[in-house]
Every structure is written in structure tokens, then in C-alpha cells.
Amino acid sequence: xxxxxxxxxxxxxxxxxxxxxxxxxxxxxxxxxxxxxxxxxxxxxxxxxxxxxxxxxxxxxxxxxxxxxxxxxxxxxxxxxxxxxxxxxxxxxxxxxxxxxxxxxxxxxxxxxxxxxxxxxxxxxxxxxxxxxxx
Length: 135
Known about the structure:
single chain, mainly beta, eight-stranded antiparallel beta sheet
């Protein structure tokens, strides 16, 4: 599955900002321009990145499902929670996002390709369609 975003938003401004997230069935991931940091819960209980997001990472990562609404992307000391719109009850992952606690900034990603869903018996995430973006 692949998502991308070409800008981020915060404090009434839009910033040029290319970020790509690619997930593979085996728990591997590839990210481009992904902010470094760790997700923490804010005072309202929502997760956001705990510091400035100007330091970026491009390369291999791993991912793990947190629940039907979110997953973690991990690389180095970074572990960021990515949400599929849990604030609005979505769980199909056609849009994903994450926020910065410090900068009041949000990244809203668009779905590029691939297809996934949960298995009928065990609730595990299953990949139903290959995504040919990278190899």
C-alpha cells in the first residue's frame, strides 16, 4: 500500500512537503521525507509527534498495526503513529495522517495504490492487491 502527500498544513498555512509511505506485507516499509520523532499523547488523548519535524528520513523502516484505525512506522529512534482518520471513525485507510504536537502541523496523505483489509477470522491485516510502485 502506498500513500503520499505534497504539502502539510498548520496555523492557516500550507507548506510544500513531499512525504511518501509504502507498506509491505511482511512488516517492512519504505518512507521518503518522513519526519523523525516519537508519537506521544497530547492533553486531549490524541497522538502527535513530540518535537520539531524539520529533520527528515528517507529509507527503510518497519510498520506494525496498532488497531484498525492506526499503525506505527519505526526507524532508528523514531516511532510515529499514523492514523486512518480515527477521529472521524474511518477505518479503510484510504486516507492517513499524522500531526506535530509542537508545530500545530498536519500531514493528510492520499492513497496511491494497493488494497488491504482485515481477515474475517482473526482480524489480521491482509493485503489483497499488489502495489507496483517500487520493488
